[in-house]
Sequence to fold (280 residues):
Amino acid sequence: IGDVTTEPPVTTEPKVTTTEPKVTTEAPITTPSQPIGDAIQFVVGEASGKAGETVTVPLSIKDNTGIAAAQFTYEIDGGLKITRVNKGDLGGSWTHSDKTNGLQFLSSDGENVTDDGVLGKLRVEIPEGTPDGIYYIKLSGFEATSYDPAYDIHKMIDPSQLVGVAGKIVVGNPVETTEPKVTEPPVTTEPKVTEPPVTTEPKVTEPPVTTEPKVTEPPVTDPSYGDVDGNGAVNSRDLLKLKQYILLAVDKSAVPNGDLNKDGTINTVDLIHLVKLLLG
Fold:
């Protein structure tokens, strides 16, 4: 009887279930960023259509603390085009610029719209020949004002309190192209990083020691130092002569002592040395 009880605990079956849930984690990668905190949210909705059609995408406002006007820009994928914006359920009017990709909302009476709901309706044209797929509409660059009835003034809303939530247009019947691309690349990137950084460190420390002290040693003890024209005096005349030689390429005999730093050439470096000498 004791021998019969040792066989049933087989542990190999549960390993099969660990490979399946990985497929379901890939879909959320394509979703837009989510709103943060308790900011006013401008939320682009969803729509579906075919190439050559025009669809309506709702643009809603959520967590609305009150706005009288708002403006922002949009990006839209795949050559799709916003042709106009109609007013939503909260009244007001819209202005659209396809040159700047700008959208502007104004309340109907200049006072605050305080409800949540559909603020506008985007009319989006899907061009002929647009491939089946998912195309996102993203909002950014927010500015908005609120009306303060106590002081009868409009105030700018802090931009950090304005966020956009992207929406999407599904064109045709998109094939599931996102799943196989996520799982393969991370395998080959890890082993190649560890080798190169070992040889770069010891080569950097040696050369900077010998270059600095050689620049600061003009022959100050030479009595001719600074006497560019060799007349026995160091003054503004020498500065003029040196400038003339450098800029006008006059005869070098006019500046016999022009090479102040003794590097074999007369140039602006010597001019700087002379200026410092004259300034003391």
Summary: Residues 1-6, 14-35, 179-183, 209-217 have pLDDT under 50 and may be disordered. The two ends are 110 Å apart (CA to CA).
